[in-house]
Every structure is written in structure tokens, then in C-alpha cells.
Amino acid sequence: MKGYKVLLIGSFLLLPNVSQALRCGSELVEIGDLEEDVEAICGEPYSAQTHTEIVGSSYNTEARSYNGINGQFPNSSLGAGVENFRQIQITVDEWIYDFGRSRMRQFLRFENGRLREIKNLSRGHNRY
Fold this sequence. Notes:
This protein is of the alpha+beta class. The chain contains 2 helices and 7 strands, in the order H-E-E-E-H-E-E-E-E. The strands form 2 sheets. It has a 5-stranded antiparallel β-sheet, with no helix packed on it. Strands 2-3 form a two-stranded antiparallel sheet.
């Protein structure tokens, strides 16, 4: 039984330090919230940086057999796909909130104005 408790406690240490919500006063901000709404609820961040990133995604299109009649593709599919790759540019805003020594600092990542990540950092430094 003792080994089980050590294993259980150790497994929590391996989990990423990522949250799905952040409490600001009596309200919560959650993944998917708009940047303006987060600032209205939590106030101005202690630190803010903006940059752009190029991200890519793959998607498949269906390959069709060509029958040569009138230069058309029939409705029947070969069952194979052609992989395509698309790159898009996104705007990334990274904010840090420091709510004081009694709380952990919070890292917030926005992509194109939507909150995508909330992560706990080390203990806060500001005195409130």
C-alpha cells in the first residue's frame, strides 16, 4: 500500500502544469475566451509580448480515377488520397499575470485573439 501512494504522488509530478481556467476575483476565464474579455475580467497583464508564427496543417483530398471520356472524373473513388500541406500565419500574444506572492504567476497564450493555453509558473513576486 505504501508503494502505491508513492507511485500516485509521483505520477502527479509528471503531469504538465497546464490549467483549463483562471480565477480573477470572483470570475473565471477559460480556454476559448476572447483577449478583450480576459483583460476586462483580469485587468492588464504584468507582462505582454506579441509575435507571429507560421503553422502548418495536413489534409487529404480524395483521388479519383480518370476515364478519359470527355476529360471527366467519374464519381467512383480509388480509395486513396493525396496529402496536401497548408501554412498559415497566426498572431500569438503571450501574457503573464503576477497576482502577488500568495499565488502562482499565470502564463496565458492567445492565438488570433482567442485564449488557447493557461499555465502555472513560479510563485508571484509582486506585493499586493
